[in-house]
Amino acid sequence: MHAGKLANASRCRTALQKAASAGKTIYGECGGYMAMGESLVDAGGVRHAMFELLNLETSFAERHRHLGYRQIKALDGGPFEGSYRGHEFHYSTVLREEDCDRLFAVSDASGTDIGTTGLRRGTVCGSFMHLIDRADR
């Protein structure tokens, strides 16, 4: 709904790119994940340039519902460690994810493997997963 406004948020884009260049840890969750990508296609099919922190392109034009509680295990190399509980709720579709490390291994609430999700490039990472709490404490 607000892809055009995000695309024009030059101060936010510059600040995040500066923080990433300085090695600050940045995590974008769901909509933040999409904003950290290279582009986002809105529901009308218009492509908007995003913050270009991750090699990611998402779309609301090609809608697919992702919904449910998730069991999440952090993969090596990112700022997260251990296991988490979380949920996923979004209608967007990933068109392209590349040239970044994967962030999480995920299964649904019943333990069925969903695969890997999220991206990490240096200290910048993001995913559609809404982390709720640590699962391994």
Structure description:
By secondary structure, the protein is α+β, with helices and mostly antiparallel strands. It has one domain: Class I glutamine amidotransferase (GATase) domain (Rossmann fold), CATH 3.40.50. The chain is 16% helix and 45% strand. The protein has helices at 3-7, 10-21, 31-35, and strands spanning 26-29, 39-41, 47-49, 56-59, 66-74, 83-90, 93-97, 101-108, 113-121, 124-127, 130-134. Strands 1-10-9-8-5-6-11 form a 7-stranded mixed sheet. The longest helix has 12 residues, at 10-21. The chain is globular. The termini are far apart. The model has no long low-confidence stretch (mean pLDDT 93).
Structure characteristics:
137 residues; alpha+beta; Rossmann fold; seven-stranded mixed beta sheet; four-stranded mixed beta sheet; 11 strands
Q: Please tell me the overall pLDDT.
A: 93
User: What is the number of E strands?
Assistant: 11
Helix content: 10-25%
Radius of gyration: 15 Å
The fold-level CATH name is: Rossmann fold
Tell me the domain tally. Answer: 1
Shape: globular
- Give me the number of helical elements: 3
How would a crystallographer describe the biggest sheet? 7 strands, mixed
Which CATH architecture is right? 3-Layer(aba) Sandwich
CATH homology superfamily:
Class I glutamine amidotransferase (GATase) domain
How is this structure best summarized?
The protein has 137 residues and is of the alpha+beta class. It is built from three helices and eleven strands, in the order H-H-E-H-E-E-E-E-E-E-E-E-E-E. The strands form two sheets. It has a seven-stranded mixed β-sheet with strand order 1-10-9-8-5-6-11. A four-stranded mixed β-sheet has the order 3-2-4-7.
